[in-house]
Amino acid sequence: MKWITRERPKIDRIACPWLIRKFIDPDAEFIFVPFDEVISQAERVKAIPFDIPNVELTHYGDRCTFDYLVEKYGIQDPAIHIIASIVRGADTDRHEFAAEAAGLWAISAGLAYNIADDHILLEQGMVIYDALYSWATHLQGFKHLQTPFEDLLVNAVQRVLEKSPSRRKPAWALALKEMIQDQIDTQLSLSLKDVSRELDLNPTYLSREFSKYFENVSYGEYIRKMRIEKALDLLENTTHTLTEIAYLTGFSDQSHFTRIFKKTVGQSPSSYRGQNKKSKENTKG
Fold it and tell me: Which domains are delineated in the chain?
């Protein structure tokens, strides 16, 4: 069967062919053409178009074409669902969907930069997704530092560096801290791409260096922390509904807000608000 999409594939347009060959159509042939030729060429060569607007196999809301293929073909493999969240985060610039999303974006962008031929790019990309599938199937629970001694050593070094930093924060880190602070009251909507453009820095460099100057966490984790801190303040000191708080703190919807809040704080926003209200009443009493 023939499948067709727009040229210069990066994330979804490499992840989808990998998924198609592995779970849907082992003999699939992929065709890459300019964006405005996909539909006409699909009709001419009788190929299935994907990952372009106004076709069945495309994005829906914040879910990408990979998600739709998984759902349409009923793929139940747990590893595929893990990969789906990573692909979704990388392809939509929503790196909070999965910690690995920023890395997948960096690797995919670098691969596309290095390889001009789309079919060679696809075959090289297939190797990356084979590796990601093996990780999601067999190695997801493992960390790079496995031995207790290594963990203790790394933690000790980090504590020393935190107490006695060897260098001052660079100008870009100070400017970024001010930018994030300014965004606290406007939904914290800064993406890594927006920040990189504003600071005139390479996104990959910024992603790699960010944790050195911001509490040893990634950009997405830091923004998530700021959002949760703002949510805690709103829950404690306002009567906003949970939907309103989700909007004010930059989450896509209430369910997303509730899931991240519970994962971070250990209880749901409604439980936290109720407990805080009860605590204040007991204090007054």
Answer: 2-139 (no CATH), 182-284 (1.10.10.60)
